[in-house]
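Can you make up a polypeptide sequence alongside its tokenized fold?
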Amino acid sequence: MPADTVQLLSPSRRNFLKALGMTAAIGLINACTNDGATATTAAGGTGGTGSTAATGGSGAGNFPETPEWSFTFVNHVTTNPFFVPTVYGIEDASAILGTTFQWTGSEIADNAEMVNAMEAAIAAEADGIGVCLVDLEAFNGPTDEALAAGIPVIAYNADTPPGNPNNRLCYVGQDLYGSGFEMGNRIVELVGEGKVALFIATPGQLNIQPRIDGAMDAITESGAAIEATAITTGAALEEELTNVEAWYLGNQDATGMFAVDAGSTQAVGQVVRDQNARDNALVGAGGYDLLPETVELVSEGVLDFTIDQQPYLQGFLPTLYLYLYKLSGGVVTPPETNTGLVFLDSASAQLFLETASRFEGDAAEQAIVEPVG
């Protein structure tokens, strides 16, 4: 296999994870983290099982020699395919910096399991914690406990809203409400009027609820004659598909179907395609994230768009920020970081179909990604 390009990797973006879904994602994340819940190794390699841990014998780059700092990442859906590139980002930053990490939390968005994981990290004297703040209150106490123990805490992927009493040092992820508002504007442009569904896996969860709030506000502020309804789909991919299909079969006069999470977005595309919804009233469909089938459905025009939020950076940057905070004794305060909002359409989706990389989460190999076109 060529060492300097990923364009020839097999399986391709078109096929990778498409049929395997959650099982493949679990395998990839476990490969990155050895057993999915124990500290991984970091320095001097490409990561994954068998890489060599840093010994603290040398500094990264021209930094001074440091202890082998270990950071814990607490996640709400540890085996979800969305987070494969996030884990790769953590692993790659760890390899550069000579740190190790633990990927832990809950597979089913159970706050109690996540809190237990944070408490375990604090008891183990972790050197830093990254956590998805998916609840307004559950993580406030553990965050304060960690900070009091001298353990820096960074939120990634999901954050509490302004004014909430969580004292995490910063947030690394998409401006969730802002991205939802922009999606709402795009819905108005595409649909104009009629019945529109906005699908959400788990209402109230802070990584996706702000998106649907933003979309609803944008639609309302536009004054368009759009009847927008929020529909719960559930956290499991199969459940999401079933619920999206059930709603559409009962509402075939809908002019739009959109979603605010990865699984629901893929489900919307599958239903639009399988039910030939474009032959009926449907004029707009789209959502979030870069699951392989979603990207393919966008490239084929089944979905009008999907929104990229750079999940790789949501792992890489918190690792870097925690390292710099430790190295500087807190002088370098981690900054609030918006990982972006990019609308992929049928043309721009080709880049993701024709390449495979750790940045997308569909290739484990380290390689230079050659530009397309």
User: Anything to note?
Assistant: Confidence is low (pLDDT under 50) at residues 1-24, 34-57. The longest strand covers residues 193-200.
